[in-house]
């Protein structure tokens, strides 16, 4: 396997939807932690968190890391909302271009995702029940994905699409429909697939020829089911500690990686242990735990990349 392993700001509590999330760790503290653990790259996180232009390139070079990809969330089934969101896509593409100007060994993949709805985010894993998408809305989602993908390709990058709990492309069936309607390939996220009732090993068999990006998460399914049974939404899942270090959850990591290896996967493997800091946990303790987990996660992948 020729893949490259990257870390992610979400593993340190830095999320796009939490403007003050960067307070859990600075960009340089996070990059030092990842570089010391042996990662080769990092996901973008909130646009601007790692800097822009020369600052971004210098920061990555200092730590010996490359940019792996980055989350671009768009309301794909809402034509008016999609139009209004296009400046955010253009802004993200400028940052990808900033990083690519350094001539990296492997280009980052702009990672498209749907915005979902309040109802879906409040009921992760049950989206098709609580807020099904109409045929017309599906057609808009596909058309707008193709348009966003065209913009990404025009900027010199290859797009990838991230299925995600709380969005309109969540369940295995919804992923099937998406892939049947577009030529945009898939980011397989093992954690979000488990939330949606899927099997990551089966997913490699089912979609392996369309997987061009890999997000690896381990999940404590008992804790996850506790949160969901109590009516928790995605924020509750992230704060609960449902996403754990490799080996502490129920992901069959070796089977997933063996299946990807058999398909000759040659791309970015991004370790994402999505964790929001709970209000009652001290920041210093949170930082130490995050760094320790990312060392464990990197070691777990040594046999593969």
Summarize the structure in words.
With 305 residues, the protein is of the alpha/beta class. The protein contains 13 helices and 10 strands. An 8-stranded parallel beta barrel has the order 1-2-3-4-5-6-7-10, surrounded by 5 helices. A two-stranded antiparallel sheet has the order 8-9. Strand 1, helix 1 and strand 2 form a beta-alpha-beta unit. The model has no long low-confidence stretch (mean pLDDT 93).
User: Given the structure, what is the number of helices?
Assistant: 13
The H-and-E topology, N to C, reads as EHEHEHEHHHEHEHHEEHHEHEH
Order of strands in the sheet with the most strands? Answer: 1-2-3-4-5-6-7-10
Counting helices, strands and paired strands, the structural category is alpha/beta
What Rg, in angstroms, do the CA atoms define? 18 Å
- What shape does the CA trace take? globular
Sheet with the most strands, sense and barrel status: 8 strands, parallel, barrel
Strand content: 5-15%
Distance between the termini: 7 Å
Quaternary structure classification: single chain
């Amino acid at each position: 396997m020729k893949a490259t392993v990257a870390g992610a700001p979400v593993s340190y509590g830095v999320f796009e939807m939490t403007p003050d999330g960067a307070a859990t760790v600075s960009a340089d503290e996070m990059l030092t932690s990842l570089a010391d653990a042996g990662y080769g790259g990092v996901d973008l996180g909130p646009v601007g968190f790692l800097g822009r232009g020369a600052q971004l390139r210098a920061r990555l070079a200092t730590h010996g890391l490359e940019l792996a990809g980055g989350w671009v969330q768009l309301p794909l089934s809402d034509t008016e909302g999609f139009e209004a969101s296009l400046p955010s896509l253009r802004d993200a593409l400028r940052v990808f271009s900033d990083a690519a100007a350094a001539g990296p060994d492997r280009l980052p993949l702009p990672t498209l995702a749907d915005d979902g709805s309040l109802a879906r985010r409040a009921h992760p894993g049950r989206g098709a029940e609580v807020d099904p998408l109409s045929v017309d809305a599906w057609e808009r989602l596909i058309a707008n994905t193709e348009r966003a993908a065209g913009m990404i390709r025009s900027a010199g990058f290859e797009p990838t699409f991230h299925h995600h709990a709380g969005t309109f492309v969540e369940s295995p069936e919804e992923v099937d429909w998406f892939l049947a309607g577009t030529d945009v390939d898939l980011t397989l996220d093992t954690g979000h697939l488990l939330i949606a009732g899927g099997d990551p090993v089966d997913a490699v068999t089912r979609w392996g020829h369309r997987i061009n990006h890999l997000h690896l998460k381990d999940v404590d399914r008992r804790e996850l089911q506790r949160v969901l049974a109590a009516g928790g939404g995605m924020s509750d899942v992230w704060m609960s500690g449902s996403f754990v270090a490799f080996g502490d959850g129920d992901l069959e990591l070796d089977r997933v990686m063996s299946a990807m290896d058999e398909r000759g996967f040659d791309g970015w493997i991004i370790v994402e242990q999505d964790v929001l800091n709970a209000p009652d946990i001290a920041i210093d303790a949170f930082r130490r735990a995050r760094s320790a987990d990312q060392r464990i996660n990197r070691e777990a992948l040594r046999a593969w990349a």
